[in-house]
Amino acid sequence: MIKMPPLQFAETNGIRMGFYEAGPKTDTPPVVLCHGWPELAFSWRHQIKSLGEAGIRVIAPDQRGYGATDRPEPVEAYDMEHLTGDLVGLLDHLKIDKAIFVGHDWGGFVVWQMPLRHPSRVAGVVGVNTPHWDRAPMDPIALFRQRFGDHMYIVQFQDPAREPDRIFGSRVEQTFDAFMRKPVARPPGTPEEQPIAGVGASARLNLAFPQMIANYDAKHDPRTPILSAEEKQVFVDTFTKTGFTGGINWYRNFTRNWERSAGLDHHVKVPSLMIMAENDAVLPPSAADGMERLVPDLEKYLVKDSGHWTQQEKPDEVSAKLIEWRRKRFG
User: Fold this and answer.
1) Domains (range + CATH), the chain
2) Which residue is catalytic, options 70, 79, 105, 177?
3) Are 274 and 291 in contact (CB under 8 A)?
4) Known active-site residue 105
5) Domain AB hydrolase-1: where (predicted)?
C-alpha cells in the first residue's frame, strides 16, 4: 500500500483540519486535492505520491466532517460558504496566495465554487467527474424528487431522523465493499446505469443507495474491487470511528446552497480541466456537455473504462493528466 505523508493540522475557519502534503514547498501554484463522499484525503494517495515526485507541491485535506478533521454538530455548518471558507483558511495557514483546486465527486462541486466565491485565491480548477453547472432553475431537492422519486439517495439524505446515516454507520465494511468496485463493462449503446449484484432494478434506477447497502452481499458481487484489503481497511477504520453524518450533512445543504447562491455569477474565469470517466453511472461524461458556456478556458479529457472512483481506478492516467495539464498551463 502507498504510504501517506505525515498528517498535519491547520486551524481554519473555526475548525481543526487534517491534511497531507508532498512535493517542494517552493513550487507554485500548488495543487489542492478535494475528495468526495464517502471518501478521504486517502482517496488521492496515488496522486499525492505521483505529483510530489514530479516536483509539484500537493496538499490533500480531510474535509469538514471527514477523517481527521472536525465534525461540527449544526447541519448548516456544512454549507458551501463553510466548505469553501475552509480551503481559503488552509491556504492562509500555509501562507499560500493562490492554488489549483482539484475536486472529485462532492469535492468537485466545492472546487467549482472556489473561483466564484474566492476568485483572488484560485489559479485554476480541475473537476474529476463533477462538471460545473449553472444555478438550477428550482430547488435541487425538488428536482431530484421529481426526476428520481423519494428513494433517490440525495432525497433520502434529507431525512431529519438520519436513517441513511444509521444504515451506512452500522454496515461500514458493506458500504465500501459495495461502492468501491469497478463497474461491469457494458456493451455500446446500453444505458449508463450500472447493475449492482443482489439489488433490485428499482433500487438501482432510483439510486436508492441506503437500501442497496442494507441488502448488499459481497459474495454475490461479480464486480472487481478497486481497493486492496489493506486500503479498504483504512476507509473502514476511519468511518467506523467518525460515522457518515459529517459527509451526509453536505447533501443536507443542497437547498440552502441553492437559495444563497441566487446573486452569484456562475462563470469560471480561470484555466480549467474537466476529467470525465466513461462508465460513471452517477456523473456520466454527458453531464459535462455545454460546460464551455460557463467555463470558456476549458480542456476536457475522457478516462476510458473507468467508473466513478476515477483517481483510484485509473490512478496513473489521472496523475499523468494532472501533471501534464499543470505544466502546460502553469509552467
Assistant:
1) 8-136+254-330 (3.40.50.1820), 140-251 (no CATH)
2) 105
3) yes
4) yes
5) 29-315
